[in-house]
Amino acid sequence: VNILLHYIKKMFDVKSKILDFHHPHQLLEGLDGFNLELSDHPESLEQLLVDCTDTLKYGVKTGHPRFFNQLSSGLDVVGLAGAWLTATANTNTFTYEIAPVFTIMETILLKKMYGIIGWGETEADGIFAPGGSISNLYGILVARYKQYPEIKRQGMTALPCCVLFVSEQGHYSVKKAAAILGIGTDNVIEVKCDERYVSNTFSKIYYCHYGHIPFCVTASAGSTVFGAFDPLHGYLTHILCICRQLGGGWGGLLLSRNHSHKLSGIERANSVTWNPHKLMGVPLQRSAILIRGKKGVMQPSCNKMHAAYLFQPDKLYNVDFDTGDKTIQRGRHVDVFKLWLMWKAKGTCGFEAQINQHMELAKYFCKVLKKKDNFKLVFDAEVKILLQRRLIEKGTAMISYQPCGDKVNFFRMVFSNPATRRADVDYLIDAIERLGKDL
Amino acid sequence: VNILLHYIKKMFDVKSKILDFHHPHQLLEGLDGFNLELSDHPESLEQLLVDCTDTLKYGVKTGHPRFFNQLSSGLDVVGLAGAWLTATANTNTFTYEIAPVFTIMETILLKKMYGIIGWGETEADGIFAPGGSISNLYGILVARYKQYPEIKRQGMTALPCCVLFVSEQGHYSVKKAAAILGIGTDNVIEVKCDERYVSNTFSKIYYCHYGHIPFCVTASAGSTVFGAFDPLHGYLTHILCICRQLGGGWGGLLLSRNHSHKLSGIERANSVTWNPHKLMGVPLQRSAILIRGKKGVMQPSCNKMHAAYLFQPDKLYNVDFDTGDKTIQRGRHVDVFKLWLMWKAKGTCGFEAQINQHMELAKYFCKVLKKKDNFKLVFDAEVKILLQRRLIEKGTAMISYQPCGDKVNFFRMVFSNPATRRADVDYLIDAIERLGKDL
C-alpha cells in the first residue's frame, strides 16, 4: 500500500516524468535487476515488493496532469478506492446470488443513465460491458436480432444481404463487429464526412445496391480522432423504421447543461454506447450499452442460452437480477462499483463541473493556439513523429498523433484528465515549440 | 485500506458468515441507512466510507473457506496486491506505448503457457481475454477464419453451411458464440456423452448432413458441471484437417505432474482456452486463448482493422508488442499483472502444490461421502433447493446446484479455494445432513 500511495503522490506532481522510456528488448532482457521471466521457485516477499516498485517505475503514469495520449486519462482517487474494494470483493456480476449489492448498483446506474438519455425505465434495457468496442458489438447484435430473430438459430445464411452504415470517422469497432458477427466488412457502407468531420449516414441509405437490406445506421457522438458529433437530431427522425446505434465515448457530456445540446436527439437512437471511463474519468474499464425498447430484449431473446448450472429459475430470490444470460461473455468483472462510488462522491453536479472544466480547457487551448503563428491544424508528418518521440523520451508530456485521409500525421489533443490545469496546457504548447525548433 | 484489510481478515475466519442474505427489493429500498440511490449532490467522506463498509457487509465473501459455489473462489493475497497495483496503474494493454511493462509480461506469460501445453514459442499466438466465454469465441472465430479467410470481408453468406461440434456437457458459450458469429445455434451439433459424462465428438463427424461442412470440433478439459475430461489424445489425432478448439477452466491442471495426464494430447489442439482464475486461484478475471500456428494468425489477418490513431506503424519502438489489433475489443483491462505476480510469488512449483491440495481435498470428500448412507449422487430436487436456501440464509457455506438431463437438481462440489481445509469439507457434509434432517 505504501508503494502504491507513494506512486500516486509522485504521479500528481507535474515535475515527475510520465515515463522512463525503454525499448521492448530492454525490458525482455531485464533492467537493473528487474527480471520479468518466471521461474519454478518462489521469490521472497522483499523481491516481490521490489518487482512491484519496478513495474510502476517503468510504466506510464496515465494520471499525470500532462498525459493527453488517450481518451481515458487521469486517476480519480475515489474511483481508485472503488477499484481496490472491487478487487477485494473478488466476485462476478452474473448472478444476484454471488453479487447482490453490485447487481442492484448496476440496475440503479442503468436507470439513472436511461433517464439522462431521455428514456423511461420500463422501456430500456442495458448492461455494463468491458469497453466501447464490445458495447458497439452488442448494439449491432441486438439491431440484427430485432430485425431478424431467426439469426440466432439459423445464422446469417438464412438472411438476405444485410448492410450497415458508418461514417468514415466512425469508430473502427463497427467494422470489427461486422467481421466478428459474420456480416462481413464489405457490407459496412462508409459514408463520407463533410469539412466539419461529421456525416449524415441516413442520406446514403437511398444509394443502397439492389438486394442490400439496411438494418443498422450508426452515428458518432464524439468521434475518436476529431471529437466530432454527427447531427443526431437532424437525421435520426427520418429513420424510425431502421435500427440506429449510437457509439460514443463522450456520453458524459449529457451531464453538462452547457454542452448536452451536442447530443440533442439521442433519445431517438435504439441503442447508445456510453463510456464513463472517458469524459467522466472512471478508472478503466467501464462502458455501458443501453438499448431502447421493452425490458428484456437482451435477456429472454437475443443472448439467452439457458445455462442450467447458473441461472436456475427456482432460486430463493427474484431472478430478474441475474444478468449473466444477457451477456456475450459469461463471467463479468465487477466494474460498476467505481462508477457508483464516484457518483456518490461527486453527485451529478460534480460530474457536470468536471466536464465543464475539460471543455473550458479545450477552449483555452484553442485560444492560445490561434495566437501562435507556428502552429497549424496539420503538421508535416516527419516532424510530428520525431516530436512525439522526443516528448516520450523526455517523458514530460504524452500526446497522441495519427494521419487521417489526405491529412498527414497531426497531434490529437484530448481533455479528459481531471488533474490537468491551464499551466499544463501552456507547458505542452511550449514543449512542442521548443522540441520542434531544430527539426 | 483499513476497511478492506478488516474485511479480508474477517473473511478468512470460518466462523464469520459468508453472506448476510437480503432480497433484491430490500436492497433497492435501502437497508439500515445503506441507500444505493444516486443524487445530484455529493456525499461526505464519512458517508462514503460507511457506503464501502456496507457494500462489503451485504456482499458475498467469495474467499471464505466454505465458499464452494463457483468454479472460481478463494482470495489470493498476492493476487489481490497485484489487482490493487493494476488499478493504480490504470492503463490499457492495447499498445506498448502506454503499457510497456504489462505487454511484455503478457508476452512472457503466454510463452510460458505455450511451453506447458507443448507448443514452441514461434508456432503459437495468444492473448488474455476477459473470460472463458470470450476466449472460446476467439477460438471459434479463428477456426472459421482459418478455413474461410473470405469470411472477414464477405460474411457468412459467402460460405457454405458450416457446422461445429460440442459435447452435450460442453460449455454453453460455444452455442452462444455460434449465435453471435452468425453461424446459428442450429449449426452446433451436440454430441451425447457416455456414463462418465465424456464425449467423443470426432466420431460424430461422419454423420454430418450432406452439404454441412464441419469446421470446428470442440472438447472440454474439465466440463463445467461434472468436471469431466473428454478423451483428448484419443480423438484429436484423427482430425488434423479440422480445426479443434479446446475449452476448459482447468488448464491449471497441466502444472501438476500427478494430474496433467488428464489433458494428454492437448498439444494437438489448434486452440486452447485456459482460465487461471479457476484452478490457479487468480483473482477475477483472467482467461487466456492460445492459438497454435505461426505467430500472427490473430493480428495481421483475423482481427486486424488498421486503426491509424492507435497502431501507427512508424512508432518509436518495435510495434510487434502492440496487441490491440489482435482483439475483438479495443481497450483491454490490465489483468495480466495479478497472474505474473502470483507466479513470481509461488513459482511453478507453488501452483503445483496448490492444485494437488485441491485434488486431495476432492479425494477426501469422496471418501467421506462413500461412508455415508444418506448421501447419493442425485438428491430429490425439492429437498435440494430448500437445503441450498437454508445454507444461503444461514450464510455459513455456499454450494451450487443444478439439474442435468434426466437428473434432477443435485449439488456440485468445487475445490478451487486455497483457504479450504478438511475441516471445512467435514462441516459442509454435516451442515447438509443437519439442515436436511426435517425435509
Describe it for me?
2 copies of one chain form a homodimer. In chain A, the strands form 2 sheets. In chain A, strands 2-8-7-6-5-3-4 form a 7-stranded mixed β-sheet, with helices on both faces. Chain A has a 3-stranded mixed β-sheet with strand order 1-9-10. In chain A, α6 (132-147) packs across α8 and α12 packs across α13 (422-436). The first copy, chain A, starts with a helix and ends with a helix. In chain A, a hairpin with a 2-residue loop joins β9 and β10 (407-412). Chain A has helices at residues 2-11, 24-29, 45-57, 77-89, 100-117, 132-147, 151-154, 173-180, 232-236, 297-303, 336-370, 381-394, 422-436; strands at 67-68, 124-129, 161-167, 188-191, 212-220, 243-247, 271-274, 287-292, 398-404, 407-412. Chain A has 439 residues and is an alpha/beta fold. Chains A and B meet through α1, α2, α3, α4 and α5 of A and α1, α2, α3, α4 and α5 of B. Chains A, B: Homodimer.
Residues in β-strands, percent of chain A: 5-15%
Distance between the termini of chain A: 44 Å
**Share of residues in helices of chain A:** 25-40%
Largest sheet of chain A at a glance?
7 strands, mixed
Average predicted local confidence, pLDDT of chain A: 85
Structural class of chain A: alpha/beta
Count of alpha/pi helices of chain A: 13
Q: What string, H for helix and E for strand, traces the elements of chain A in order?
A: HHHEHHEHHEHEEHEEEHHHEEH
The largest inter-chain interface, given as chain pair and residues per side, is: A-B, 147 and 147 residues
Shape of chain A: globular
Strand element count of chain A:
10
Quaternary state of the chains: homodimer
